[in-house]
Amino acid sequence: MWTYMLRRTLQGMLVLLLVSLVIFALVRSLPGDAILLQLDQAAALSKADLELARQELGIDRPFWQQYKTWMTGVLHGDLGKSLTSRKPVSQELGKRVALTFHLALMALLVALLIAIPIGIASAVWQDTVTDYIGRMFAILGLSFPDFWMATVAITFMAIWWHWMPPMGFEPVWIEPLKCVEQLCIPAVIIGARLSAVLMRMTRSALLEVLREDYIRTARAKGLRERAIIIKHGLKNACIPVVTLIGQQFSVLLGGAVIVEVIFLLPGVGSLTLDAVMLRDYTVVQGAVMFFATVMVGMNLLVDVSYAWFDPRIRYR
Amino acid sequence: MQRRFLLWACFGVSALLTLVMTWTAARAQGASTPPAPQPPEAFAYAAPALIKELDSKYPFPPPAPPSPPRRGGVLHVPTGVLRSFDPTVGYSTELSLVWDTLLEWESTWYFPEAHTKPMIRKSLAESWHMVDPSTWVFQLRQGVKFHNLPPVHGREMTADDVRYSYELLKNKPGYSNRTAAIQEVQVLDPYTVRFHLAIPDPNFPLNHVNSFSPVIVPKEAVEAEGGLGKYPIGTGAFLLKEFATGEGALLVKNPHYFMRDKDGQSLPYVDAIRLFFTRDAATEAALFRSRRVDMMRPPTLDMLNELLKTVPDAWLYRIPSLGWTNYGLWLPFGKPPYNDVRVRQAISMALNRDIIAETINRGDASLYGPFPWVQAGYMQRDDYSYANLGPNYTYNPKRAKELLAEAGHPNGLEMTIEWGEFRGAAWSDFVVSAARFLEDIGIRVKLKQVDTSTWWAMRSGAQPFNDVLASFTPPGSGPSFMDWVYLPHHSSSPPTVNIPHIADAKLDALLDAWRAATGERQLAIQKQVWDYLREQVYRVTTIVPPHYRLTQAYLHAGGVPYCWFIGFCSYEGKSAWLTDKVPNRKFDKFAQ
Asked: What per-residue confidence (pLDDT) applies to B22?
C-alpha cells in the first residue's frame, strides 16, 4: 500500500513538473504581455520605456531563465508576485481558495443529494415511469449550460423578487447561514448539472451490479430488497461513481469560472480569468498549478478509496 | 413486452411529429400565395418611438435636483475589475476618488451649465498663466492636506509634491500621453510650479483636467515599504478603507477634504462609496434591479428599455457623447491601397451610417466625423448631420465603386478587418454591417476576431494590426484639440499615439499653425483641419451612441459629456447624494 502511494506520489510530481512547463510556455505564447495590456487608454511609452517596464517585471529575460527562477521559487513555496497587482501570488490564491472549495463542496453535496436517490430509483425501477422521468431529468441537466442557467436565474430573481444572493463570501465556520445564502443558488446551478452526470453513472453502475451472481445469491438467501440494494448493490456500484466524483470535483474547482463571474464570487476561477485577460503570467501559472495539484491529489485519493469500496482490490 | 411498447410509442410520436410538420408546412405554403394581394404591413420598428419618448421624459440637460442635498449614506457603484488601487501601477478612473489632479471638470448638479459647455474646476491649482506657449506657471491652493494617516500624517501638499508626482508618473502607463510634452517641472516656491514644454501648447491646462494627467502623491507613501498599494494616501475626497482584489473597494469620506460646494458646505455628501467589480452586463442589471447598486450604465438601448420596464422609477441621464466609443475603421495609411485617398473615400462612402446606427443601437446614435463636433465649432445637436460631414461620409455605393475603379481596383480588393469583443461595445454587429456594405462595392472582407487583450494592444499602438482594425477613439483622446487631433495626426508623434502612421506635410503644417495661433485664429484653423480631414478620410468614422446612465430614484448624481464615468475626473462621487429613500444598508465587509 505504502509503496503504491509513494509510486503514485512520484508519478504525480512528474505530472506537475510537466504541467508547469506546458503552462509556462503556453501563457507566454499568447499575444501581448502584462505591460502592453496595462497601457490602457493613454499610451505614449517609447520602446525603451516598454523595455524598462518589462525589465522591472523580469519578463524580458530568456524563457529558461524565467522558468528556472520561477521553479526555484515554487520549490521554496514562493509562487512569485502578480505582474499586475504586485502582490504575492500565494496571497492572492490563498484568499480565493476557501470560497472555491466551499462552492465546489456545496455543489457536490447538491449533486449527490439529487443524483444518488434518482440514480437508485431509476435502476431499481428500470424502464418504468420513474426511470423515464429520472433519465429525462439527466438529459435536461446535461443540456442546459451553467452560464445560461446562472444568467436566467440571476435575471429572473431580480425581476420577480428584486432579490439576488448577497455579494461577497463568509466562510461556513464564521457565519453558516450567510454562507448558505450567498452560495446556495450558484451551488444548485453547478450541482444540478453535475447531478445529471452522476445520476446516469449511478444508474448504469447499479444496473450492472444488480445483475451480478452475488446479488442473486443474496436474494435467494431471503435478504430484504433494501439491504440488497444499499449494502450489496450500491456499495459495489460506487467505484465508477467515486471515480467520476473525483474527476468532477477537480473540474468543479476550475469549471465554476462563469458562475463565479455572474454571481460576483471572488474565487480562484474568476482570478484565473482576470489573470489570463491581463496576461498576468505568474497568477495564471500559480492558479493552474493549484488546479493540477488538486487534480493529482484527488486522483490519488480516489484510487486509495477503491479498497474500501471493494475489499478484493489490493495495491501492489 | 415493455420494450415493444416503447418501440411503438417512439414510432407513434415520430409519426405524429411528421404529420404536424407536414401540416404546418402546407399551411405556410398556402399562406405565402394568398388569393388577393394584401397591402404590406407597416414597418413596426419601435425604437424611434422609444427614443422620442426618452427625449421628452428624460430631457438633456436634466433638471437640477432639489436643494439642499442630504448628507450621509453609502453609494453603491458597479465598475470594471481593478487589479490594484495604486497610481504607480497603472491608471484607472476610480483612483481620482483618492488622489486629486491639479484641475478637473466641473460636473456637479448645482452647475447646470456644465452640461452644455466644459467648465474647469480648480482643484489643487488655484490659478495659472501662460508665460509663453512653452512655459506655464501654476499657483497651488494653500492649506490642502494629505490624508491624516502614517507615514504622511496629514502634512500639507506643496509644489515639491507636484514636481515629484509628475516626474514619478511621467513615463508610467496611463499618464504618459498627457505628460509627453512636459520637459521639466520647476518649483518656484512652496505654492508655485513652472512647466517647461518640449512642444508649445496654448491649451496646456486642459492636459491637467482629469485623472489621465498625473495625480499628486506624497513621496513618503510611495517610498515606504509596500508603496501606495499599502499606503493609499492622497488629498482626495475619499480614503481607501478596503480593497479586495477581484471583489470591490470601500472608500470612506475624507472629513478634512478641502473642496466646498457653491454654498460653502463641505464635500463629499455621502459617507462612503462602495465599488463592486463586475464583469458581466446581466449581473450588473440584476444588481440594479435588486437595488444592490445605485447606478449603472446599460450598454445598449435594448438593455436600457428592459431596465426601464422593470425599474420604472429609475432616472435616466442620456448624455450625447463627445466621441468616446465611436465606431470606426483604422487603416494603415502608409501601405497600399490605403495610401490612396480615393480608396479611403470609397470605403467611407460604402458605409450606410443610418443602418449601422440601427444595427448597433436601434438608431439611437449621432453621426461622427474626423474628430468631436464641438472642436470644429459645431455646438448644437442639429449640427450632427450629413450636411456638415460632406460627401465622403454620405452613403453612395455607386460613387464608391467608381472611386475604386479610378484608383486601379475595378474588380475590388481584399480586406481583413481585425476586431475584438469589448464590454459595452457592439463590435461584432459593426464589423458584420461594415463587411456587408464593403462587399457591395467589391471589397471582399475577411473578418478576424482577436482576443480582447490583443485588440486592446493593437488599438493602443503597442502591437501592429495587419490590415484594418475596427476600433474607437484613439488612445489618449482627452478633452483638448491637442489630444484628439494634434497628437494622433501629427507625423512627429510616436507610433503609440499616431497609430495609423499618418504622415501628411500639409496636415502637419496646419497643425503647427494651430499650435502657434490663439483666439479666433486658432478656432478658424481648427475648422480648416476639420475640412482637410473630411476630405482625406484619415479615419473612417461612422456613429457614436449616447451614454446612458441609470440611477435609482433615491440618487442624485449628474453626468455631463465632459465627465461621464464615475471617478473619471472624481467629480460625481464628490457631489452625488442619496435621499432618505435609500435602502438601509449594513456595512458588510468584503470576503477577503
From this structure: 58
**What ipTM was predicted for this assembly?**
0.73
Is the minimum CB–CB distance between B290 and chain A shorter than 8 Å? Answer: yes
Angle between helices A2-29 and A281-309 (to 10 degrees): 150
Place B5 in a pLDDT band, splitting at 50, 70 and 90.
low
**Nearest CB to B212 within list A42, A169, A266:** A42
Q: In Å, how far is B67's CA from the nearest CA of chain A?
A: 30
Q: Mean of the per-residue pLDDT values for chain B? A: 83
Query: How far apart, in whole angstroms, are the C-alpha atoms of residue A168 and residue A186?
Result: 13
**Distance between CA atoms of A303 and A309, rounded to whole angstroms?**
11
d(CA B329, CA B336): 16
Which B residues 353-372 touch A at CB under 8 Å? Answer: none
To 10 degrees, what angle do helices B397-406 and B341-350 make? 160
First-to-last alpha carbon distance for chain A, in angstroms, is: 6
- Structure-block grid coordinates of residue A253: 474547482
User: CB of B59 within 8 Å of any CB in chain A?
Assistant: no
Contact A306, A294 (CB under 8 A): no
Confidence of residue B329 (pLDDT cuts 50, 70, 90): very high
Closest residue of B to A89, CA-based?
B245
Residues of A in contact with B284 (CB under 8 A): none
What pLDDT is recorded for position A87? Answer: 80
Are A193 and A146 in contact by the 8 Å Cβ rule? The answer is: yes
pLDDT of residue B220: 95
Q: What is the end-to-end Cα distance of chain B in Å, rounded? A: 61
Contact B192, B141 (CB under 8 A): no
pTM of this structure: 0.79
What would the mean pLDDT of B580-587 be, rounded to a whole number? Answer: 78
CA–CA distance, A193 with A191 (Å, rounded to integer):
5
Pairwise CB contact (< 8 Å): B91 & A50:
no
Q: To the nearest whole angstrom, how far is the Cα of A205 from the nearest Cα of chain B? A: 21
Q: Minimal Cα distance from A157: which residue of B? A: B286
> Rounded to an integer, what is the distance from CA A150 to the centroid of its chain?
17
Closest CA to B544 of B456, B439, B426, B391: B426
Positive or negative torsion for Cα B541, B545, B546, B552: negative
Burial A53-71 (b: 16+ CB within 10 A, else e): bbeebbbeeeeeebbeebe
Dihedral (Cα; A215, A221, A226, A228), 10-degree rounding: -20
Contacts of A43 in chain B (CB under 8 A): 173, 176-177, 460-462, 475-476, 496-497
Give chain A's mean pLDDT.
82
Cell representation of residue A42: 493613454
Q: How many CB atoms within 10 Å of residue B438?
A: 24
**B465 SS3 class:** coil
Element (H, E) at B301: helix B301-310
- For residue B346, the one-letter residue type is A
- The confidence score (pLDDT) of residue B565 equals 47
CA-CA distance, B105 to B206, in Å (whole number)? 9
Q: Per-residue DSSP letters for B171-214?
A: TSTTTHHHHTTEEEEEEEETTEEEEEESS--TTGGGGGSSTTSP
- The phi, psi pair for B192, rounded to 5°, reads -135, 130
User: Which residues in chain B have Cβ-Cβ distances shorter than 8 Å to A259?
Assistant: none
- B485: cell is 487631433
User: What pLDDT, on the 0 to 100 scale, is given for residue B585?
Assistant: 75
Helix (H) / strand (E) element for B51: namely helix B47-57
Rounded alpha-carbon distances, angstroms, from residue B372 to A231, B297, B325, B393: 77, 22, 12, 15
Q: Do B234 and B146 form a contact (C-beta atoms < 8 A)?
A: yes
